[in-house]
Structures are given as C-alpha cells and as structure tokens.
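Appendix B, record 7
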Amino acid sequence: MAEALGAVAAEAKPLALLQDEVVSYGERLSAELLAHVLRGAGLRARCVDARRCIRTDAEHGRATPHKDETERRTCEELEHLVEAGEVPVMGGFIASSAEGLTTTLGRGGSDYTAALVG
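Structure tokens (predicted):
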C-alpha cells in the first residue's frame, strides 16, 4: 500500500491506474479478514485474489470483463479448492487487465463479480 501511495504522490503512473490499485486494497483486505473469521469458526476457507480470476480490458475505473477468459481463469483457480472442501473467499469489484494491472469494474462491480464467478 505504501508503494502505491508513494506512486500517487510522485505521479509515477497514470492516475486512473493508481486509483484502481489504491481502492482495491479495501476489497482485498476484507476478503482476507473474512477468510480468517471463517477459519476461526471451523470452516476451511481460503482467500483468493480476484485479480487472478477476473480478466478485463484496461479501462481503469470501469473495466469490462472478458467473459471467456474470466470463466477459464476462475475455474482454474476455484475448482480444486471447492473439490477439496475449501470455501473460496474473494473480494468483488476488482480484476486485472491482460497486462496484469489492477482494474476495477465500477459501480455495482461487486455484484457483477458475484455474477461472473457464479
């Protein structure tokens, strides 16, 4: 997080890209915390970074998911966890571009993530 905030201060990257990196921290932290709480309750939960599953174009702040690539990557990341009896916990709203840069889906993005993964 400090690196991303430093990049914002230095204007080292395009602002839209930096915004996506910074705002993604809340979702990523929430997913980690929820997975921890679920494990504390006796469930086999594992946090999965949504950026490993949801692939989008590079339109920061309102990226459009690539549905086929997203489906393939989501299956690769989650099927073995579910088959092993683990509960995948993933933040919504965040994704990554083909270049691996953090993107966000914009307003309603968490619901959109749930629909894509479902």
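Remarks on this record: The first helix runs from residue 2 to 10. Strands lie at 45-47, 55-56, 87-89, 94-97, 102-104.
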